[in-house]
Structure formats: structure tokens, C-alpha cells
Automatic annotation (TrEMBL):
Subcellular locations according to the entry: Cytoplasm
Organism lineage: Bacteria, Bacillati, Bacillota, Bacilli, Bacillales
Protein name: Asparagine--tRNA ligase
One Gene Ontology MF term: ligase activity
InterPro entries xrefs: Aa-tRNA-synt_II, aa-tRNA-synth_II, aa-tRNA-synth_II/BPL/LPL, Asn-tRNA-ligase, Asp/Asn-tRNA-synth_IIb, NA-bd_OB-fold, NA-bd_OB_tRNA
Family of this protein: Belongs to the class-II aminoacyl-tRNA synthetase family.
Subunit description: Homodimer.
The encoding gene: asnS
EC number: 6.1.1.22
Keyword Flavoprotein appears in the UniProt entry: no
Taxonomic source organism: Virgibacillus siamensis
Length: 430
């Protein structure tokens, strides 16, 4: 019977064959312990000299790291291992012997590991991070599908910018100018006017020359947009969605979180509702905490966000930022037009902003005014203005950065480990 490591517990007491690679090994006299991986998980194979042929035992003792094989044996319980099961090996069929595998069990520098990212992905901790990422994606689709959202794919090549052109990658589109998308939001607004509640999930690009642990050049965004929904209703969606994803990861990635040595106590507390603090009160709080550099009207940096998050035991919404530091499409507060109906969701433990969202301007005259203020008078934005001209309704949306969320839930320090092949300021390889 051919199976996988993740399915092996279903075959307790039975002999199975698994296609696997050797992650590590140790041997002691008449027994060899093979640490196996097959992409679905990690499991130990025990090779006892008295239970196998001499040829198989010598192969087990001499097989090299990352060599590939078909390995056959009986699945038994092993309460000492995190997985809970191991294989009592009866036969090994070598597929390919790996010679001089460059990533050994010793410590390596980050740059070396990034140069060998195509191989580093095979390691136990990187495997665990990718499984957490996959669960976030799976839970995202489940949440939005179960709540009657329609998946829509906005274009990656655009003729205009969502939030200004200073951080866009420019390219030629035949005889026209084009950009790599920094957000699908404007297109998602059009989709919401057609389909009601929509969400996108895809790559976005920021030509931001940043080297911080929170930034990537290419990253993935989940961007829902909802017609007939105001700002407060959108905040409820955001906290319910994030709570659902976090609890799904806790339920379905327990082994991976253990591998990552993630303290899950703060994650277990992530359940709606989340606390909220206005931008005004956040500025006051920061000044009380000794951040004399921050004044009303200035945006928050990473240290400011971390200080605010430390004041709470859950993710926290910072609401109603000044209009001058937010995007042109955000709806002003009717009672206080110098601030907009928006919020950033700040994750605990110093992981920073994971969601940015707002209610969008739905008034045609106000949007025309914004166009003039931001010099958006070109034909490239005509279609976006028409959304306010033909059946405009109150609508809201948000964007969640996948890699920052993966970093937060898996507990890794840098977002470069949360995407299979990171694109950084000075890295386009591999």
C-alpha cells in the first residue's frame, strides 16, 4: 500500500510504502534512525539490523541527506515524537543519491540560506511556515465562501495607480504606459457594484526601497469589498474574519506551531470583538508613553504601532486617521471631515499593521473634488468616477497582507520567511 506521511496514522499496524527524502539520520550499532520527509510531514523510520537484509541496513547507515527513496515498513505508535507515529522499516529502494547537499544541520547565515531558498524550503521550520500560510489561505476561502462572497480576480497590469505612482513598478504595455498593481481595490469596488460582496486574492507590488522586517517588494493581498456596508459593519467583518482564520490555524496547524515553538497563548485570545482606539487617542497615548516626536497629522511608524499594540491583549483597530495622510477614496467622517472613516488593524507582539480598510466615498461631487485635489483628471480614472455616477451606494472594504499575517501567526521575525520565494530590495534570486 502506497501512502504519505500525513496519512500514515490511518495504517497503524500495516505495512506501507512512502516516497520520501532523508532529512537527517543517526545510527547506533545495530539500529539506524532515519528522519524522513515527503512534503506532507516528517516521520522517523527505524531500521533494525536484525529485521532487514544486510544490503538494506548498510544503505540505511550510509544514505546521504536529501537522498530520495521508496521506503517500506510497518506504522507503529511512538509517543515520544511530536507526530506520534514512526515506521519500522523493512526495505529501502534508493531513487537518487544526493551528494554534498549544501544545507547541513549546522547553523548557516541568513544570506546563505536565502541564496539557497529553493532548498531551504525543505527544512522543518520552513515547511511549517508554509503549512501555516496554506491554512490561512484555505480558511480565507472557507470564510468568504460561507458568507456569500464572490471571488473576483483584478488585473495585475494597470494603466493607473490606486494610491499614487511613487511606489509603482513601471512597464511598457505595447504603446501605452502601464504599472504592476499595488492593489486590486479600485477594481474590486467595480466588482462589488456588480456582485454585492466580493473578495480577491493575488499578488501586489510596491517599489518601496525598504529593508525592514515587515516589507516585501512582491506580496499577496486578500481584498474584500462590500456594497451597502458602512465602516462599522466592515470592522465587524474584519474582526470576525481574522478571528476565524486564527482559530483555524490553531485547530489545524498545532503540529506546525509546536515545530515553530510558537507561544499560542496570545493567539488563543484572538476572538471578536477587538478593541478600538481613535487616531486622536492613539496620539495622546503615544505622547504619554514618551513618544514626543509624534504630533497630530503624522502617520505612525513601526515603533508607534508596537507601543499601541502593547496596550492591549488582542489585535487593535486604530480608527479615523487624518484625511491628509490617507488615500483619496476614503470617505470623510460626516461629523468631522478632517478625518476619514478608516481603520488599521494592528497585530500584537510587534507584528504591525495587518489590515487597512475604510468606507469609500460614494458621492459623485465629492469624488470629483478629490480628483482635482489629487490631479486625477486623466482618462485613466474615468471608469472609477462612473461607479459614483450610475447607482452609487455606501460601500466599504479592506486589504489584509498575507505575509505579515503568516509572520504573526507563525511567530517568525521577518516576512522573508513567509513567502516561498521572497522578492526583497536587493534580491531577485532564486
Amino acid at each position: 500500500m502506497k501512502t504519505t506521511i500525513s496519512q500514515a496514522p490511518k495504517f497503524l499496524g500495516q505495512e506501507v510504502t512512502i516516497g520520501a527524502w532523508l532529512a537527517n539520520k543517526r545510527s547506533s550499532g545495530k539500529i539506524a534512525f532515519l528522519q524522513l520527509r515527503d512534503g506532507t510531514g516528517f516521520m522517523q523510520g527505524v531500521v533494525a539490523k536484525n529485521d532487514v537484509s544486510e544490503e538494506t541496513f548498510q544503505l540505511a547507515k550510509n544514505i546521504t541527506q536529501e537522498s530520495s527513496m521508496y521506503i517500506t515498513g510497518t506504522i507503529v505508535e511512538d509517543k515520544r515524537s511530536p507526530f506520534g507515529y514512526e515506521m519500522q522499516v523493512s526495505n529501502i529502494e534508493l531513487i537518487q543519491e544526493a551528494i554534498d547537499y549544501p544545507i547541513t544541520p549546522k547553523d548557516h547565515g541568513t544570506e546563505f540560506l536565502m541564496d539557497h531558498r529553493h532548498l531551504w524550503l525543505r527544512s522543518k521550520k520552513q515547511h511549517a511556515v508554509m503549512k501555516v500560510r496554506n491554512e490561512i489561505i484555505r480558511a480565507t476561502y472557507q470564510y468568504f465562501n460561507e458568507n456569500d462572497y464572490v471571488k473576483v480576480d483584478p488585473p495585475i497590469l494597470t494603466g493607473s495607480s490606486a494610491e499614487g505612482t511613487t511606489e509603482l513598478f513601471h512597464t511598457k504595455y505595447f504603446d501605452e504606459e502601464a504599472y504592476l498593481s499595488q492593489s486590486g481595490q479600485l477594481y474590486m469596488e467595480a466588482a462589488a457594484m456588480a456582485l454585492g460582496k466580493v473578495f480577491s486574492f493575488g499578488p501586489t507590488f510596491r517599489a518601496e526601497k525598504s529593508k525592514t522586517r515587515r516589507h516585501l517588494i512582491e506580496f499577496w493581498m486578500i481584498e474584500p469589498e462590500m456594497a451597502f456596508m458602512d465602516h462599522d459593519e466592515s470592522l465587524e467583518v474584519q474582526e470576525q474574519y481574522v478571528s476565524f482564520v486564527v482559530q483555524s490555524v490553531l485547530e489545524n496547524c498545532r503540529l506546525e506551531l509546536d515545530t515553530l515553538e510558537r507561544d499560542t497563548s496570545t493567539l488563543e485570545n484572538v476572538k471578536a470583538p477587538f478593541p478600538r482606539i481613535s487616531y486622536d487617542d492613539a496620539v495622546t497615548l503615544l505622547q504619554e508613553k514618551g513618544f514626543d516626536d509624534i504630533q497630530w497629522g503624522e502617520d505612525f511608524g513601526a515603533p508607534h504601532e508596537t507601543a499601541i499594540a502593547e496596550h492591549y491583549d488582542k489585535p487593535v483597530f486604530i480608527t479615523n486617521y487624518p484625511a491628509d495622510i490617507k488615500a483619496f477614496y476614503m470617505k470623510p467622517d460626516p461629523n468631522r471631515p478632517e478625518v476619514v472613516l478608516c481603520a488599521d488593524l494592528i497585530a500584537p507582539e510587534g507584528y504591525g499593521e495587518v489590515i487597512g480598510g475604510s468606507q469609500r466615498i460614494d458621492d459623485l461631487d465629492l469624488m470629483k473634488q478629490r480628483y482635482e485635489e489629487h490631479n486625477l483628471t486623466s482618462d485613466a480614472y474615468k471608469w472609477y468616477l462612473e461607479l459614483r455616477q450610475y447607482g452609487s451606494v455606501p460601500h466599504s472594504g479592506f486589504g489584509l497582507g498575507l505575509e505579515r499575517t503568516v509572520a504573526w501567526l507563525s511567530g517568525v521575525e521577518h516576512v522573508r520567511e513567509t513567502i516561498p520565494f521572497p522578492r526583497l530590495l536587493n534580491r531577485l534570486y532564486p
